[in-house]
Amino acid sequence: MPVRSPPTANEVDMATRATITGLKKMSLDCCLVGSVACSAYGMSRTPADVDMLVLTTPTSYTGSSPSEAELQRTQEVLKNKLIELDSRFYTVASKDPYATYRVLWFRIPSPTSTSSLTSSSYAAYSSLYSLRSRDRSCKVDLLLPGVMNIPFVPKESIYRTPSTTRSSSANLDPLPLMPFLPLLLLKLQAWQDHGESPKSWMREKQPIDVRDITQLLEIAVTKYCPKPSSSGSKHSEAEGQGSRLKTTLLEKESTWLPDSFIRAGKTRVKKFVGSYPSTKAQWKMIGFDVDRDRSDVPVRAPAPPLVSRSVPLASTVTPTTRLASGSRSAAVGSRRRTQVDGMVKMESLMRSLEL
Predict the structure, then answer these.
(1) Cβ partners under 8 Å of residue 139, min gap 6
(2) What highest taxon heads this organism's lineage (predicted)?
(3) In which band, very low, low, confident or very high, does the pLDDT at 72 lie, cut at 50, 70 and 90?
(4) 314 has pLDDT over 60
(5) Are residues 270 and 186 in contact, defined by beta-carbon separation less than 8 angstroms?
(6) C-alpha–C-alpha distance, residues 6 and 48, integer Å
(7) I want to staple 191 with a disulfide (CB 3.0 to 4.6 A). Which of 50, 63, 107, 209 is the partner?
(8) Statement to judge: residues 251 and 173 lie in one domain
(9) Average pLDDT estimate for 252-266
(10) Is 118 part of any domain?
């Protein structure tokens, strides 16, 4: 679907709210992930599309994990249902000729000012669009827990914030967001995936990921990390440090996040710090131990075993063939003595190392 220009923040917000409304009509909870959620938390970059996590029943409750094909079928059903509920949604074939899924888009209404609209008039306006609006659309990705390692988010853990893209006079419902820490770790996963991709257009996304992550780290330190105690006494300082250790962002969110998700995040954090050491202090404030641990230290190969002292060294070397020629026998004997001498020297060297 050709797009003349990227959607504006207001247009992305319009597509976001239409998606939320459609999912609510299906009695499905959801939360934003990706750049729209990052923008709602304070990231400056304008998102280009909508990534919505549909909160289906977590697989741990059903007793079995759905296959990739089952997840894809569920996603296609949700897309078709959205189209039935709202004609502004439509799908097109994927650019990948081998893909079996279709890409969901939201038609952007014809340009007009929306800053002064009330909630009701904005809803009425957003349902109207001209045929020319088919030239402009916003892509919408419906994601499920388990897709791209996205964790299930309990309903009570969803963070809700009002939109900042329009005038505050519009009484709009708050946006449901994935909690900050898993959102940051998913952005870190995207950074690694883009960098390791064999496709050049994917690798070109990594600098954008770096800018997003560094800005999100600044937001985390400013908004979500406890401030040091103002008291100057050692006792108060120790108490403050203990309090900070118990209330890091990582510890708060790790109560419901899967262990495998946290472990993968810790590995990626160390890799990111290795490439961008200036972010080390920020990751530590969030709760990640980015210092080298014993698992990072290379293990020395064990020394070769000493020859048993209970057996004479000469007896450890025996000829494999008998030679009829006297000169050949002499040569073998000479080589045998050389081998024995070498073993004696090795044993002597190993003893000196032990001392």
Answers:
(1) 48, 49, 50, 103, 104, 105, 106
(2) Eukaryota
(3) confident
(4) no
(5) no
(6) 6
(7) 209
(8) no
(9) 94
(10) yes
What is the residue whose two structure tokens read 């909160």? 55
pLDDT grade, residue 45 (50/70/90)? very high
For β-strands 50-54 and 137-143, DSSP reports them as parallel
CA-based nearest residue to 140, from 170, 168, 95, 106: 106
| pLDDT on residue 227 | 67
pTM for the model stands at 0.69
Helices 9-25, 34-41: crossing angle, 10 deg rounding: 110
Residues 237, 151 share a domain: no
Residues in the chain: 355
Helix (H, G, I), strand (E, B) or coil at 57: coil
Is residue 188 within 8 Å of residue 180, measured between CB atoms?
Answer: no
**Does residue 41 fall inside a structural domain?**
yes
Burial letters 305-317, b for 16+ CB under 10 A, else e: eeeeeeeeeeeee
> Are residue 25 and residue 165 in the same domain, yes or no?
yes
For residue 255, which phi and psi values (nearest 5 degrees)? Answer: -70, -25
Q: With both helix axes pointing from N to C terminus, report the angle between 206-223 and 180-196 in degrees, rounded to the nearest 10.
A: 160
Task: Give the tokens for residue 107.
Answer: 């038609």
Which DSSP category does 48 fall into?
S
Which residues are within 8 A (CB) of 214 and not within 5 positions of it... i.e. 6 or more apart? 276, 279
Q: Report d(CA 355, CA 352) in Å as an integer.
A: 5
Longest CA span, the chain = 112
